[in-house]
Amino acid sequence: METTTEAGAATKRAARVGGRIFNFSPGPAMLPDEVMLRAQQEFLNYAGMGASILEISHRSKEFVAVAEEAASLFRELVSLPDNYSVLFMHGGAKMQFSAVPMNLIGLKAAHRAAYVETGVFSAGAIKDAAPYGAIETIASGRADKFVRIPELDMARLPKEVSYLHITTNNTAYGTRWNKFPETGDVPLVGDATSEILSRVMDYSQFGLVYASFQKNLGPAGTALVAIRKELFGHALPFTPPLLNYAAVDKGQSLGNTPSTFNIYFAREVMRSIKQQGGVREIERRNDLKAQLLYDVLDQSKFYKPLVDKAHRSIMNVTFDLPSAELLDAFLKEAAREGLYALKGYREVGGVRASIYNGMPLEGAEALASFMKEFERRRG
Amino acid sequence: METTTEAGAATKRAARVGGRIFNFSPGPAMLPDEVMLRAQQEFLNYAGMGASILEISHRSKEFVAVAEEAASLFRELVSLPDNYSVLFMHGGAKMQFSAVPMNLIGLKAAHRAAYVETGVFSAGAIKDAAPYGAIETIASGRADKFVRIPELDMARLPKEVSYLHITTNNTAYGTRWNKFPETGDVPLVGDATSEILSRVMDYSQFGLVYASFQKNLGPAGTALVAIRKELFGHALPFTPPLLNYAAVDKGQSLGNTPSTFNIYFAREVMRSIKQQGGVREIERRNDLKAQLLYDVLDQSKFYKPLVDKAHRSIMNVTFDLPSAELLDAFLKEAAREGLYALKGYREVGGVRASIYNGMPLEGAEALASFMKEFERRRG
User: Of all helices (H) and strands (E), which one includes residue A227?
Assistant: First the structure.
């Protein structure tokens, strides 16, 4: 007996805080209810100051404490080694597509960098790096339509490249790296935008990890950068100060006015993750949510998963339906059930359910139930 | 009979929404109560969508409508000529300190630009432009300790400079340009961060005007750029796409995920300005607020105004007290009266009252009363 009749779904929706639906948007994405509520409650008056967190100086002791706690919570949650800095920078991942080569391609005289193309955003990173040196795509999933992470022969990684760039989770296709390449002396750079703080990752494998805020950290417009300090000091001479990692680090991300609300929000998100038991516990819940949906796909002859089992993301679950008409009906009926923003990426099509940290288990359950019910009716 | 006894001030404070104090922070700064309230009210559920404005795609029809309305409200409020574009860009004014030369210094083969130094932020703009060409400070108020806007002999502006950069209002010192230089064929670039939408300005005098959000537009982390379209297309080859005006314009500021919450907030601010009667009415109120404070200064032998009458800002009112002890007592007692963040800029000292659009008349009245009362007691 399923509970996804329209009445059932309506009851579930009504039970949710503030009339909120289950929002499967790929980003900006659903943020945790408890953090949204807290931010709303103290929106006019932060910590009894009589002013909003939006309205106080980034140099006030109250905001400096917020920024410091945000950075130190991140360190704690990912067990970041001491020789790494945590930076909050303007712009999202796309700004890092430029900042990474501007800062790191000068690490070696050849000004070469290697990239792996695994989807839409890694392709964007490759394109945006082009003005800064010789950018080599050493592996690509393009011929396979990005349904899997390509094999990498690390013996073929040129020793003179300044870094190797990967996208750890691919939002548009719904794939992820399960085992990160071992790059030896070559710094590994990871765009973890769509999975930061969603699974346990060994940051010591990376020279640099960056992530936009708008999936697992908070409002759009800011990126978190975790960088091994020895990589500082090689920025190209025309690098803007706000994109220069060493300069941002020197100012402890407060050298100019940062996105104070976003950093505050990310602190609240990380406080909540810590309270729930840390990244390991969050990963367990995320695995559970994803498994609910993948189980439906694996037991169905109706839905067509879009990517290889071995490289499935637990953040973005993608699949298609037997026809454009059924896809259209699926998306429309899902929306009526309060299951929002399930349309696949425009270049990929089909359905994409983005189930970031902010998506409660009930959301994945509601979608799994709807999928089964839809298949029974229309399959 | 003044009303600034502690009890009187407490009553005023209690009457304000959400226990909010009068916040004279230079930025991030006090935002209009009515906008803060509205943003709080619909924080969990925007326009009945069941999701926050923070949580929906920047490409959703709902957000695209927000961004379009924000841009068109700005056009309307400042009577922007048709041959200008309005852009929303990541980072505040400091990001523009790099973006302006990256985009405009290539307008002429000499790669020269002229700057006027009128305070802390114009000095920052000059410094950050240095990597991109020959940057010439054609006039500076430094010898006068920035108490006035220096005289400019436009006949001496080299014809081969790509642009002339000024800071229209100087936050740290509290001065402003009353009459903008007539630059003929040389595009005039204005940093209007601390006074955007606060007074009537003729945008057709400028090739480009930019402003951080965090004083008169909304939360920190975003800049508004109004640019004459004929200036597109001269960016230096290494300009990051997100700092390239033509590229941002092509994507209508939505080419990557912008700070959606900030743009939404700015739209609400501009809706409110329009409803109140537009920039002319806002300017009238701002003049009134500033006059209240300047009247106290002009009638006092106790307070020492820091800048020349002829160049006084209506956004940042600066003055000093006869001694460090009195300054300290003034700031402490003001804070107890709910008059927050009055300490002057660290390189300037004294008192700075930032009275942006979000500061109600009552805030300026409360400060003026406190100043008179403090002078009576301690003068």
Answer: strand A222-228
